[in-house]
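Milestone 3.1: sequence recovery, worked example.
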């Protein structure tokens, strides 16, 4: 994979897994065939609790296939997948159900007590309180993406899967949603697996950068010289004030 990660900013890393250590996700020998082609081919991957991992790779390298498998949305995979706690996923297109109001989109299929109150709390966190009763088609792109994040959040995931959630957004909205993701990550502490094509984005957000190639994790780097990032709430507030 020829992904131009600046090598001065990263160090080679192994798989984060140590035998017996807790993990948010542990994948062994994951294989997914379409016809006779193995898009995922014996893939191993461990994600530590609370770790923020960016996943790069060419179009068609199997990134979305991997996320669908981790989310339990694909029954045709072979291999072992262990996930600690709940998993939520936000896709590139927010995929809101158009005939359900925003609040009801968040609680679709959610089997918990007091779902509406939880939905409202999540909407408040992403700054969408006023849009709770709106129809999805009336939302802007950024609002729809925030609603999609709120829908993930309401499930209180220990593993949050983000499949290119920023790529359809304009540059300014992207910054807002970026910051929101960091904010949610800092506040809730899930492990995150973020698919992105943007190396700068990966270096800004992630602890570790993976490259998927040939159906496996072909490269794994720890980010050493991170772009300014703000896991700490205090820093986040300072950043907000500055922008
Ligand atoms: P990425 O997200 O990295 O761009 P995908 O995981 O979407 O790649 O797809 C990986 C490969 O698997 C592509 O070649 C794609 O055409 C193929 N693929 C994905 N889903 C299906 C499917 N349901 N049926 C057949 N081929 C598929
Ligand atoms: Mg994809």
């Amino acid at each position: 994979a020829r992904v131009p990660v600046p090598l001065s900013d990263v160090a080679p890393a192994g798989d984060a897994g140590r035998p017996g250590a807790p993990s948010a996700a542990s994948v062994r020998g994951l294989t997914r065939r379409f016809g006779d082609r193995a898009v995922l081919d014996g893939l191993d991957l461990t994600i530590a609790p609370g770790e923020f991992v960016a996943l790069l790779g060419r179009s068609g390298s199997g990134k979305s296939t991997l996320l669908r498998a981790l989310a339990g949305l694909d029954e045709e995979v072979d291999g072992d997948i262990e996930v600690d706690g709940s998993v939520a996923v936000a896709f590139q297109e927010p995929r809101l159900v158009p005939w359900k109001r925003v609040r009801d989109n968040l609680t679709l299929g959610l089997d918990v007590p007091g779902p509406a109150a939880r939905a409202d709390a999540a909407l408040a966190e992403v700054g969408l309180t006023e849009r709770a009763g709106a129809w999805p088609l009336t939302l802007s792109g950024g609002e729809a993406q925030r609603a999609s994040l709120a829908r993930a959040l309401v499930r209180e995931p220990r593993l949050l899967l983000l499949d290119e959630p920023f790529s359809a957004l304009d540059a300014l909205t992207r910054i807002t949603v970026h910051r929101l993701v960091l904010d949610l990550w800092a506040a809730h502490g899930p492990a995150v697996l973020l698919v992105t094509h943007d190396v700068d984005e990966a270096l800004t957000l992630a602890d570790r950068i993976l490259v998927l190639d040939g159906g496996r994790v072909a490269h794994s780097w720890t980010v050493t010289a991170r772009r300014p990032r703000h896991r700490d709430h205090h820093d986040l507030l300072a950043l907000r004030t500055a922008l």
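The chain has a mean pLDDT of 87. Residues 63-64, 163 surround magnesium ion (ligand 2) (CB under 6 Å).
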